Amino acid sequence: MIRNALKVLLVDDEMGILDTLRILFRGEGYQVVTALGGEEALEIISREKPDLVVTDIRMPGTTGLEVLSRTREVDPEIPVILMTAQASLQSAVRAVNEGAFYYLQKPFANDELLAICSRALEARTLKAENRKLRKEIKRREKGSGARPIGKSRGFLEVLELAETVASTDSTILLSGESGTGKEVLARYIHELSTRSEGPFFSINCGALPESLLESELFGHVKGSFTGAVRDKEGLLVAAKAGTFFLDEIGEMSPATQVKLLRALQEREVIPVGSTEAVPMDARVIAATNRDLEEEIRRGSFRSDLYYRLNVIALHLPPLRERREDIPILARHFLGKVAAGASGAGMAGAGTPSAGTAERSEKAGGVGPGADPGPPVLSDEAMEALRRYDWPGNVRELENALERAVAVAHGPEILPEHLPQRVLEAPTPHLVEDRSLPNPPMEIIERAYIEWVLRAEGGNKSRAAEVLGIDPSTLYRKLARYGIGE
Known about the structure:
This protein has 485 residues and is an alpha/beta fold. The protein has 20 helices and 16 strands.
């Protein structure tokens, strides 16, 4: 325990005793603050917030028990040691019941007092560490089930950095194309933070007109504009001890940018129509799909606000740069759609048709009446998903799979169930496709398949025999490499 970092408040109505105690505690390396009487102690406790209070009980005016009560109001974890020359069982019981750490009778040995103070501070430290540990365990338990999905290196690097900085109060700027999951990541950061017990509020800066956005952010007072029939608390203040997510920050008007900058700098907001500032205690996470540095050069975004927001920068890669995540995300979304359908009931899900039953058997179904589980993607459908560039990113993938489930009416998703734009996507160049585990080997395999196919006069069945693979596997490889298109 580093004593010179610990502050002790000594309270007594006799200056001689205070001087003696001051010399004693300073000799042990403590920071010492003294109060001549209980009334002065009440003022010091709120201002100084000591780590330990040592006070006499019987003092004129404000007693030691009142000092104890005030200390517990300020911080119930601050230990208080009471001293008295007129000890009684009744006063000792009362002191302990009201939260005193120890009740010490005068006269006492200096070593005895110092030992009691040391135990009191150690107990406080242990309580704080246990509380922090319990909170950390709870935080990890809450965050473990909501981890964003993906295994690509670029995405995992972003996720690991987000997990590292989640426990801080630093402002975070998330960038990336629309649909990459910026709000999902913001919520994940909130769940991992020390503010996870507080609220998570969000607002889309581009979805509201300027006047309404200011009212939502900063609040307003009654009569500040037409329709303001009562005072309204702004979301920046309402998110106290929580997180506030500002989506599409690049859409914010210059006037609102100025007010937001002031709020972040001063940690207070001025409601619309008011002249009095209201303190705010929200951790701010902002997001944009724009290049804010380019917007600064154009003069549409303030550089000082950008640097205030860009304390920690996280860039979410588009889905076309993390194609290896497409199968994982696809299975997740299919399971999500199936869970929603099973919970709400599916129209026409009574007796399966012959075709449905046949597909269910192929997909490993267990017979009528059983839960078929989420639909599965055929190999051809999965290849189509991997080829498409997904300009709408993860959001577009989820919507496409939801549509496919609705169209398929069965346990297997085939290419024809996918949107036409997905099927018409060109095959990506193999060398540039980062999702392939070994592009050089893929190029060799493609060349070999083409050579065998030419040697067999284009007969795919005979080519499959020569290659030693099933015809269905050959068809998948032809589709993957774009051979014969």
